Amino acid sequence: MKIVYTLLIILLLSFNIFAKNNGESENMFYISFGEKDIACQFAESRAAEELKELLKNGAITINMENYGGFEKVGSLPQNLTKNDESINATSGDILLYQGRYMVIMYGNNSWSYTRLGKITGLNSGEIYNILSKAGNSMKVYIK
User: Fold this and answer.
1) Per-residue pLDDT tens over the stretch 16-51
2) b vs e for 11-43, b when ≥16 Cβ sit within 10 Å of the residue's Cβ?
3) How far is residue 47's CA from residue 101's CA, in Å, rounded to a whole number?
4) Cβ–Cβ under 8 Å, residues 94 and 104
5) Residue 108's CB: how many other CB atoms inside 10 A?
6) CA distances from 21 to 1, 40, 111 (A)
7) Beta-carbon neighbour count of residue 54 at 10 Å?
8) What is the topology classification, in CATH, of domain 28-141?
9) 32-to-29, 50, 112, 113, 131 alpha-carbon distances in Å
């Protein structure tokens, strides 16, 4: 009987771990400027949901340009619903500007944006070093 209980506990724990990991992956997307994948978490906004739906059709490539020494900006393949608010954006914020442009902060700026997501797992110095020196072609995708 102890064996049955032990197997049941292992099964329940395994299911719980799978459910947590599955939920986390549904809220994640990735950006890449070549070989390094950068993990990002979707924001809670209609625009972020629309971006998630767009990425379910496959990866998109965005031509990004450095702007102002604190951000990369590039045009999305389609407009997303904007719900702009005044934001004190910081390194790692991924934002929507004017409904059409993805902005990825590697510095700070205050402006009206709609939140799309946030880079995870990197500190502001790492984000600055990667994004300020990265090329212009950025791939955005979900796994």
Assistant:
1) 444 444 455 789 999 999 888 999 999 999 999 999
2) eeeeeeeeeeeeeeeeeebbbbbeeeebebbbb
3) 11
4) yes
5) 13
6) 31, 15, 34
7) 16
8) Cyclophilin (2.40.100)
9) 10, 20, 25, 22, 10
SS (H, E, C) 93-125: EEEEECCCEEEEECCCEEEEEEEEEEECCCCHH
Q: What angle do CA 91, 96, 99 make, to 5 degrees?
A: 165
Q: What is the pTM of this model?
A: 0.83
Residues in the chain: 143
Tokens of 98: 């004017």
Query: Could you tell me where the beta strands, DSSP code E, fall in the chain?
Result: 28-32, 37-42, 60-67, 71-75, 85-89, 93-97, 101-105, 109-119, 137-141
Cβ-in-10-Å burial (0-12, 13-18, 19+) of 127 comes to buried
Model pLDDT, residue 21: 46
Amino acid at 141: Y
